[in-house]
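re: that chain from earlier
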Amino acid sequence: MLKRLKEDIRSVMDRDPAARNAFEVLTCYPGLHAILWHRLNHRLWRWGLRWPARFLSTIARWLTGIEIHPGARIGRRFFIDHGMGVVIGETAEIGDDVTLYHGVTLGGTSLAGGKRHPTLAGDVVVGAGAKVLGPVSVASGARIGSNAVVLRDVPEGATMVGIPARVAGRRPDDAARRREETARRLGFDAYGQTDMPDPVSQAINSMLDHIQATDERLVEMCRVIRKLGGQLEDVELPDIADCDIENGHRPRSRAGDRDRS
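^ sequence. v structure.
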């Protein structure tokens, strides 16, 4: 259980540049608190203790502003950012490395029993205010834009926008995945907006592609220089995500980046 908790804390710190340390995440992040409550409630639900599970889930909703039915099945490294107003229904299924922002609803559209809530595969991001309704499937790597309403299955790597949601783009290639990783380092991926089809996002995506290409070219140049016998000083590259620009603080460096210089 302690290992799982450490994994949850690390997933928050990896995806939220505002998270400064593990103690802050553990004490101040209602999304993490809601997940911890849900693990207890889900276990009670599976043991057949349905009323205690529902009662404790109600307490968790009062404390966190996040409503997760104890019957919902949730994978590892699940991250709810901000969290207020998130609703996850009884038969919802969520894979690993999924991110939800505030105001998201994974709801049902039928009064009949059985499967009536969405299934989210791994590495899905659902933007603020989005609704995914009914027993639809959201394939891995998909992005649901802010305030979108999803009523049908979402293909792998698709970006969905609008009401009802439609496919606005896809991320099928390695270049797009590298862009996403760079975006996360720079803090541009919040609220599922990175691949939105608007001029600002297109400009940001072009910048991310340029940064990624430049970084790869510099690494290759350093390798060639060393191969030819040149001497290069090991320099720690700054971590952009840790740079406090508003307060004028210098960014911290990552020791793991020395080999890239």
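The chain is about 35% helix and 15% strand.
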